[in-house]
């Protein structure tokens, strides 16, 4: 509709008769950015969705407005029925009400708001908020305000923002801010047109100042006085005490103008908003790239990034993009309101469909944020985001709005438009709060849409099924599980899992929710799903399930359709594949290319009939069922669902259950139900139950038919003869829907038909039921949609109604650009979605190539031949075929555009792909790699996928790369760039139980964190090796790796993967075995120990995987270490925070309460099983505490503190550039190696459980328990030794290696200067003399190394490691103290913040080095468990220990009850006082190395028999006297220890214990002055949620220095694991009755049965 004038914008096509730029709104020829014409006029987006275009839009709208009121309100004469009954009293009702007249006279409220905004906005710098018909919520020109700012004195702010990433990288941003001149924010300096930009700049500067203050190198470990430079920034610009919270502490030169500009913007308190940093903070890369809209993430950069990393950019740009996509949405919403005012249903329909098209895009836009490291610019690293941007984005105070997506105007508008009624959930309340802070235009617009002519109400009142359907589609598209909300939720889940595990303490959405489980990402998932339900409620009443639980269920099928045709598409006489048409006339269903249909299939009449016949239900088919509780609740939900769709109250009848229930194949659960009902009297069922593969190919009708002949009539009657049919709905569950790719493409507004390409699945009926005869059965759904032609009429009723739904896969859509080449690989019916692709591309005039590779068995099965030939002839398609069982080939001839018949060897698709290898390679390679950047799609079964990938890999290898792995990388890049997409047709395969059994420890060892190692995961009892799957996982590899080595069932369920057939079928390709279940221990103590140990292993594995995320980014990401060729403080800061966190918290989840829990329980078990408490136990906890406060640990901390000092001293840092990075790499490697060692130890313990369980049953329970506990205890001790070794190792490392640096002299000088400054230079000089070292003979570094070591460290290598032991009484007394409640303990754990802003602010205050909230909760739960354990074993502890009555009495049941409340254990958290010299000496000894010798083996079964219950014995003490005991294996922590071990003779009695509690930070406990007076800086109000940790000083003497084990146990035989436990049928074969003689298909061909079946089928044919 654009007017063709003399001047026309070459980009947008918009024209202006005046010759002025259509986007500038002034009389200037120049566009807002100086171009002659603008590409911003959005013509393509407007055209796409039917909103008025460019400069003509106002005229068009005005034309609409000129309608007369009569035209609007009284267009037709009232019908007679309406007038007839009216009297004088009532006749006035014929005329419109005053309200309506006024409303019509004024126009639609939304239009009024829009027009006002458009009129006033351009003259006031849009300070009321950007809002226009042509640009929606986006600024008409994103550069206009920044240009205005740059032309004002405020330019100083934007100039500084332009330098920001570089300055942040140097650690110099605060200095730069302080140097800014004071520029006022008043109108005399900052014009209105520059206000937005000024607000954004100043808001960012204030926030970054705060961020820097909190992350300046003092947030982690600080030793001594620290860097004097740190304080130079504090209050440098005046303390601003007079200021309010938002600008407190922020330099006045930005605080004052910030307040001024915010006030002018109508913000009562100064703050930065989410839309400031996203929608109003981008610049376009290519302004001519306007299709379908310019603001695409790939076409934008942040104007003022803070860190300049892609995680920051992707989040913000995607938010900008959703608003860019929505530019015409604002106009469409207004038009909907106008259509409702005018009661114009056709117009409303048109606008709603257009709006749905836009909303459909929101999910895929959000999905662009990729967690896949090889996805180039789309990669948003969660670790980076969590530790940097998430911290930066904290609000200026906790009373101003948080930076949250809820504040974005688009979502507020959609909520209002879709009639959201409830805002009661946490996020609901937050949304309302944030709405109150929106710019006034936005608030007015949203209110106009919400309060006037509400769309959902109107649609409901119309009875127009098309409108209902489109609204339903819109609901799903915005708030549904597969729509925007669902996509957002899943993205957040995966992202936050990584973020939360890598040390972030809080989460955005999780704030305010009860974080009871301690897994914040799961909490966020719940919070988001609550708010989804709240939104859905007006549409779906009584929602009882979480949204993800509805995936893969009938709930997804919300429309009705009819099978209207089944057609041949090839020459196969069996019609194995058919085109099936589903009529959807007037349903309002819309779909696009790549969309899928979900359908609830109906059982064939014969299958339903068999069941009816066997159960005697033929006469009762129309009887309504009383749906009770239990499994019938599915049917109840189904009834509600059906009633909702049909708009009336519907009953579930017997017929419904038989036609819509799951009758085939038989799961073990279903067979078991029948078996139990028949009291085990059917021998065939017994045989079936021992099957090795489940489910069994058979139907319920089959097994009932056979069983009926075997079972006594009385039993049968008792099972099924009941008048009450309650059992029926419990026996037969509701069928699950099937998915089909849509094969049709419709250009019109609403399609009438959906076409599918369905290939019939066929299975061989279980031979147990056929007496060995081969009987083939069709799959339920494919058999229903495409039955064998001869069955069609007989088996299914005509025109049967089916429930259907539409879903849009996130990863299977045509490229936006019509010029992009598309390559489709199809196997068999995999051609289904591609038919819609080529049709859409050809009819849309796409200029890019369309290439189809099609693999089928034979010429006979070549489908859609005519259509394909036409498409080829039209030059719309290049077709390459592969027939696997036919020599009659079809070859594509590009010159004649025909398919030529030829004789050729049969082949698979990979051969054809290889033949076209060069072309395929170019298409797979990205444009950056010099390729064509084609969009590739694979569709078909899993084996088709494998063949295609094999072909492509070979092609790339042949044509481009030197290795297969390089070829794999090219493919992985295509996947990561979202150019490679899959549509895998699956039918879940039967699971064989013959596969190997994989132990939990084997699984745990495969975390894949090392390059080239394997990644395994466990899901619902199966183990998968997903190493090869990682690069192609659509959600990115990090997310999957977060579950590596673990049982990921819960995550799978949460993400609805388990109910996603596509995921499960793809996964089946990677299946490697069954996960060993928990052994069935007869002693509950064993079971409980197992659970504790398993949990500990899980924690360790999680620690390894998530630690490796950070380690990888520290060690491999050059971006974090360098920016602009200079050392980036981002890297230094990150490493400092990361390592501080580890050391300060001492790997808290592994060495905190969880370990103590195991230790206490094992101690108790050992003593309890012996019945006495004499002897000593290893002082595991004491050893761990001492390791954390050892000299080595102190030295390591000092070094890390020195790294912190460099955070704000970039010049010095650059002097040590190489040393610093080398140090980071070395220490990170040590971290990982250490955790690997710990995991290995725990895995040994895990294996011991299985071994113990397999011991001869004659072994006494107590004996087993004792042996196991002893073994596990030895492992705990080894773990403690490893910790000591770890500290020793990292204590040796240093970043000062001047010889490595590019300028060694300067580096040396920097060291000396530092030493001189902190005074250590002189101290060290004295030490040199004392030691009599010849310093001249050593080089400078050696001197430093030597000198910097305290005397004790030099000595410690000469001392032996001594076994540190402790008595039972001491351990229990300590545990009693540690886990007794403290008064007012709840106050220690502030309740979770109530508001989002509070949460964000709290998060930013907590420094990065504190324990994550996840870790804290893990700890507190463990503390809770210990407390309960102590309580429940109180009597035994009393009996066994010699704890004084006073001590033991102090532990009461109340303690146990009180302890769980946020779990902080024990009395006051005191500073430990290691005062005695004896203690110090011990603490500083132990130069432990990780244990290297193999673990002491568990006993062989035989030997174990001979071990008597030794009274009062603990390893290493009494058994020395027992000559009869087997030889005790030992391991030594050092050679000296070994020598001393031989001299160890007796156990010294423990020295009196000091029951000092230790704070969470073991190092903080030490007041050892030799460590430079280490201090923890209580910055940012960090909550001390510390758990008191047990610390014990043990006896002073030389107790045994070797580890001894009472139980001589041989190593675990390896074969066990390979073979796995034999899985015998649980069915007692001996009880099997005689199988009766059967004939045919399980005896069903008997005449009598057939007659009954005919009758049943006949009855079923009857109408509902
Ligand atoms: C994304 C996708 C697209 C597909 N597109 C097509 C297509 O265009 N054309 C085509 O012919 N086939 C397609 N399929 C396969 C189709 O969904 C069915 O799996 C197939 O028709 C066999 O179903 P059936 O009922 O006949 O098999 P049955 O043998 O009756 O089913 C076997 C077992 O698998 C389970 N099962 C089968 N399918 C599903 C499912 N979708 N969800 C959950 N459980 C299931 C059944 O409950 C049963 O336990 C597609 C599958 C997927 C996942």
List keywords for this structure.
single chain, 1664 residues, 6-stranded antiparallel sheet, 5-stranded parallel sheet, 33 strands, disordered N terminus, binds flavin-adenine dinucleotide, oxidoreductase activity, acting on single donors with incorporation of molecular oxygen, incorporation of two atoms of oxygen, flavin adenine dinucleotide binding, FAD, heme
Question: Could you please describe the fold and organization of this structure?
Answer:
The chain is an alpha+beta fold and 1664 residues long. It is 46% helix and 8% strand. The chain has 71 helices and 33 strands. Strands 10-8-14-6-7-11 form a 6-stranded antiparallel beta sheet. Helix 40 crosses helix 41 and helix 52 packs across helix 55 (1261-1291). The radius of gyration is 37 Å and the shape is globular. The two termini are 53 Å apart. The structure holds flavin-adenine dinucleotide (FAD). The site of flavin-adenine dinucleotide has 30 residues, from strand 10, strand 11, helix 34 and helix 45.
**How many extended strands?**
33
Shape: globular
Secondary-structure-based class equals alpha+beta
Helical proportion, percent range = 40-55%
How large is the radius of gyration? 37 Å
**Overall average residue pLDDT:** 78
Bound small molecules, by name, code or SMILES, are: flavin-adenine dinucleotide
Strand content: 5-15%
Low-confidence stretches: 1-13, 28-43, 226-236, 505-517, 1323-1362, 1381-1390, 1443-1487, 1499-1649
Number of helices: 71
Distance between the termini: 53 Å
Q: If strands are numbered along the chain, what order do they take across the biggest sheet?
A: 10-8-14-6-7-11
Q: Describe the biggest sheet?
A: 6 strands, antiparallel
GO cellular component, one term: cytosol
GO molecular function, one term: heme binding
Keywords: FAD, Flavoprotein, Heme, Iron, Metal-binding
Domain Cytochrome b5 heme-binding: 995-1076
């Amino acid at each position: 509709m654009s007017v063709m004038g003399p001047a026309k914008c070459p980009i947008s096509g918009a024209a202006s008769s005046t010759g002025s730029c259509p986007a500038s709104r002034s009389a200037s020829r120049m566009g807002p950015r100086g171009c002659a014409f603008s590409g911003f006029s959005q013509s393509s987006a407007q055209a796409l969705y039917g909103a008025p275009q460019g400069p003509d839009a106002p005229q068009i709208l005005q034309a609409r407005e000129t309608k007369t009121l009569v035209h609007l309100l009284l267009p037709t004469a009232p019908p007679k029925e309406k007038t007839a009954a009216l009297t004088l009293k009532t006749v006035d009702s014929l005329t419109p009400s005053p309200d309506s007249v006024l409303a019509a006279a004024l126009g639609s409220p939304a239009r009024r708001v829009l027009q006002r905004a458009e009129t006033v906005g351009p003259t006031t710098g849009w300070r009321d908020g950007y809002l226009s018909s042509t640009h929606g919520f986006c600024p008409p020109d994103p550069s206009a305000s920044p240009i205005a700012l740059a032309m004002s004195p405020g330019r100083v702010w934007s100039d500084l923002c332009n330098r920001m990433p570089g300055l942040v990288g140097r650690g110099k941003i605060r200095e730069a801010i302080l140097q800014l001149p004071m520029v006022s924010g008043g109108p005399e300096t900052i014009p209105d047109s520059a206000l937005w930009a000024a607000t954004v700049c100043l808001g960012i500067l204030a926030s970054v100042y705060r961020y820097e203050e909190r992350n300046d190198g003092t947030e982690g470990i600080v030793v001594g006085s620290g860097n004097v430079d740190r304080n130079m920034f504090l209050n440098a610009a005046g303390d601003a005490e007079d200021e309010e919270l938002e600008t407190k502490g922020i330099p006045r030169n930005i605080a004052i103008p910030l307040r001024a500009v915010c006030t002018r913007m109508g913000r009562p308190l100064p703050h930065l908003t989410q839309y400031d940093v996203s929608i109003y903070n981008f610049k376009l890369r290519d302004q001519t790239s306007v299709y379908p809209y310019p603001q695409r993430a790939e076409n934008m950069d942040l104007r003022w990034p803070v860190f300049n990393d892609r995680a920051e950019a992707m989040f913000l740009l995607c938010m900008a993009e959703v608003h860019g996509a929505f530019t015409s949405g604002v106009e469409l919403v207004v038009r909907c309101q106008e259509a409702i005012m005018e009661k114009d249903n056709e117009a409303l329909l048109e606008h709603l469909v257009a709006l749905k098209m836009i909303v459909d895009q929101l999910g895929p836009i959000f999905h662009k944020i990729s967690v896949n490291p090889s996805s180039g610019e789309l990669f948003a690293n969660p670790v980076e985001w969590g530790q940097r941007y998430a911290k930066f984005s904290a609000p200026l105070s906790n009373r101003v709005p948080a930076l949250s997506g809820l504040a974005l105007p688009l979502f507020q508008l959609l909520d209002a438009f879709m009639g959201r009624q409830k805002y009661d959930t946490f996020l609901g309340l937050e949304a309302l709060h944030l709405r109150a802070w929106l710019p006034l235009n936005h608030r007015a617009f949203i209110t106009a849409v919400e309060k006037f002519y509400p769309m959902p109400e109107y649609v409901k009142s119309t009875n127009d099924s098309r409108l209902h359907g489109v609204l339903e589609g819109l609901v799903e598209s915005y708030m549904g599980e597969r729509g925007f909300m669902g996509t957002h939720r899943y993205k957040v889940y995966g992202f936050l899992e990584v973020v939360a595990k890598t040390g972030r303490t809080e989460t955005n959405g999780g704030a305010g929710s009860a974080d009871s489980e301690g897994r914040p990402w799961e909490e966020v998932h719940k919070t988001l799903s609550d708010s989804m339900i709240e939104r859905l409620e007006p549409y779906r009443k009584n929602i009882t399930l979480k949204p993800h639980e509805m995936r893969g269920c009938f709930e997804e099928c919300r429309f009705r359709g009819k099978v209207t045709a089944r057609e041949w598409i090839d020459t196969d006489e069996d019609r194995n594949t058919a085109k099936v048409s589903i009529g959807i006339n007037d349903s309002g269903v819309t779909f696009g290319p790549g969309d899928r249909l979900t359908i609830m299939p109906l059982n064939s009449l014969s299958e339903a009939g068999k069941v009816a016949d066997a159960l005697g239900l033929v006469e009762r088919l129309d009887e309504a069922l009383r749906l009770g509780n239990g499994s019938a609740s599915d049917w109840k939900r189904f009834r509600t669902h059906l009633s909702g769709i049909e708009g009336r109250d519907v009953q579930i009848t017997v017929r419904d259950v038989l036609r819509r229930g799951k009758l085939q194949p038989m799961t073990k659960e279903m067979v078991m139900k029948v078996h139990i009902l028949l009291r085990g009297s059917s021998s065939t069922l017994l045989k079936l139950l021992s099957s090795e593969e489940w489910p069994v190919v058979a139907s319920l009708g089959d097994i009932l038919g056979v069983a009926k002949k075997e079972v006594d009539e009385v039993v049968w009657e008792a099972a099924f003869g009941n008048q009450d049919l309650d059992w029926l709905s419990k026996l037969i569950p509701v069928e699950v829907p099937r998915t089909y790719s849509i094969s049709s493409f419709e250009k019109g507004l609403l399609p009438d038909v959906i076409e599918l390409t369905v290939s019939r699945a066929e299975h061989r009926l279980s031979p147990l039921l056929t007496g060995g005869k081969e009987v083939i059965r069709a799959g339920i759904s494919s058999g229903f949609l495409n039955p064998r032609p001869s069955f069609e009429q007989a088996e299914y009723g005509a025109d049967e109604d089916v429930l259907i739904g539409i879903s849009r896969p996130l990863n299977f859509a045509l490229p936006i650009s019509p010029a992009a080449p598309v390559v489709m690989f199809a196997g068999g019916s995999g051609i289904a979605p591609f038919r819609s692709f080529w049709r859409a591309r050809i009819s849309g005039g796409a200029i890019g190539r369309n290439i189809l590779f099609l693999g089928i068995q034979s010429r006979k099965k070549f489908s859609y031949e005519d259509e394909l030939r036409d498409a080829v002839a039209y030059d719309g398609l290049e077709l390459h075929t592969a027939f696997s069982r036919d020599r009659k080939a079809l070859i594509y001839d590009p010159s004649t555009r025909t398919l030529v018949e030829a004789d050729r060897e049969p082949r698979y698709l990979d051969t054809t792909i290889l033949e076209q290898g060069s072309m395929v390679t170019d298409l797979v390679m990205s444009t950056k790699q010099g390729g064509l950047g084609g969009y590739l799609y694979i569709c078909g079964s899993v084996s088709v996928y494998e063949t295609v990938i094999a072909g492509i890999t070979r092609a790339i290898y042949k044509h481009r790369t030197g290795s297969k792995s390089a070829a794999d990388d090219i493919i992985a890049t295509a996947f990561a760039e979202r150019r490679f997409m899959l549509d895998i047709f699956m039918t879940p395969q039967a699971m064989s139980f013959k596969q190997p059994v994989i132990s939990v420890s084997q699984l745990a060892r495969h975390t894949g964190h090392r390059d080239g190692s394997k990644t395994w995961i466990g899901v619902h009892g199966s183990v998968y090796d997903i190493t090869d799957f990682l690069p192609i996982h659509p959600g990115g590899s990090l997310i999957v790796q977060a579950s590596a080595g673990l049982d990921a069932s819960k995550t799978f369920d949460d993400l609805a993967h388990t109910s996603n057939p596509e995921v499960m079928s793809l996964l089946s390709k990677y299946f490697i075995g069954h996960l060993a279940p928990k052994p069935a221990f007869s002693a509950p103590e064993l079971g409980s120990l197992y659970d504790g140990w398993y949990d500990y292993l899980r924690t360790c594995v999680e620690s390894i995987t998530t630690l490796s995320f950070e380690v990888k980014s520290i060690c491999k990401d050059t971006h974090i270490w360098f920016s602009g060729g200079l050392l980036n403080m981002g890297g230094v800061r990150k490493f400092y925070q990361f390592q501080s966190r580890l050391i300060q918290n001492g790997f808290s989840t592994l060495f905190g309460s969880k370990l103590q829990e195991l230790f206490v329980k094992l101690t108790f078990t050992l003593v309890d099983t012996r019945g006495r408490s004499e002897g000593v136990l290893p002082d595991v906890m004491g050893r761990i505490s001492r390791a954390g406060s050892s000299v080595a640990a102190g030295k390591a901390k000092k070094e890390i503190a020195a790294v912190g000092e460099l955070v704000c001293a970039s010049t010095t840092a650059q002097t040590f550039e190489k040393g610093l990075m080398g140090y980071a790499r070395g220490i990170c490697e040590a971290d990982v190696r250490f955790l690997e060692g710990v995991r290995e130890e725990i895995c040994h313990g895990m294996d011991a459980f299985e071994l113990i369980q397999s011991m001869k049953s004659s072994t006494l329970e107590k004996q087993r328990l004792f042996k196991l506990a002893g073994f596990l205890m030895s492992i705990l001790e080894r773990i403690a030794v490893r910790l000591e070794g770890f500290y020793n190792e990292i204590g040796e490392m240093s970043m000062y290696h001047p010889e490595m640096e590019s300028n060694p002299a300067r580096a040396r000088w920097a060291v000396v200067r530092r030493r001189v400054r902190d005074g250590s230079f002189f101290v060290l000089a004295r030490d040199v003399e004392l030691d009599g070292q010849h310093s001249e003979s050593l080089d400078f570094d050696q001197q430093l190394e030597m000198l910097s070591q305290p005397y004790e460290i030099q000595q410690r290598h000469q001392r032996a490691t001594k076994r540190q032991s402790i008595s039972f009484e001491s351990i229990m007394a300590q545990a009693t103290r540690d886990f007794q409640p403290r008064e007012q303990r709840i106050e220690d754990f502030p309740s979770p913040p109530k508001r989002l802003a509070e949460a964000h602010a709290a998060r930013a205050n907590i420094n990065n080095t504190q324990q994550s909230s996840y870790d804290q909760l893990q700890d507190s739960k463990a503390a809770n468990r210990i407390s309960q354990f102590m309580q429940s074993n109180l009597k035994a502890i009393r009996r066994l220990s010699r704890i004084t009555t006073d001590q033991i009495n102090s532990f009461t049941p109340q303690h146990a009850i009180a302890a769980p409340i946020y779990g902080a254990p024990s009395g006051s958290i005191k500073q430990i006082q290691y005062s005695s010299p004896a203690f110090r000496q011990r603490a500083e000894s132990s130069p432990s190395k990780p244990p290297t010798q193999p673990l002491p083996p568990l006993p062989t079964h035989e030997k174990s028999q001979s071990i008597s219950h030794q009274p009062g014995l603990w390893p290493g003490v009494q058994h020395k006297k027992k000559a009869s005991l087997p030889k005790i294996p030992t391991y030594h922590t050092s050679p000296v220890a070994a020598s001393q071990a031989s001299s160890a003779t007796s156990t010294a009695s423990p020295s009196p214990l000091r029951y000092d509690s230790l704070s969470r930070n073991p190092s903080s406990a030490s007041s050892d002055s030799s460590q430079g007076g280490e201090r923890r800086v209580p910055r940012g109000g960090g909550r001390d949620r510390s758990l008191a940790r047990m610390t014990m000083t043990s006896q002073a003497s030389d107790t045994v220095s070797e580890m001894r084990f009472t139980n001589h146990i041989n190593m675990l035989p390896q074969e066990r694991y390979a073979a796995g436990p034999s899985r015998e049928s649980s069915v007692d074969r001996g009880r099997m009755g005689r199988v009766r003689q059967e004939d045919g298909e399980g005896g069903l061909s008997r005449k009598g049965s057939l007659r009954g079946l005919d009758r049943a089928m006949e009855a079923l044919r009857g109408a509902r």
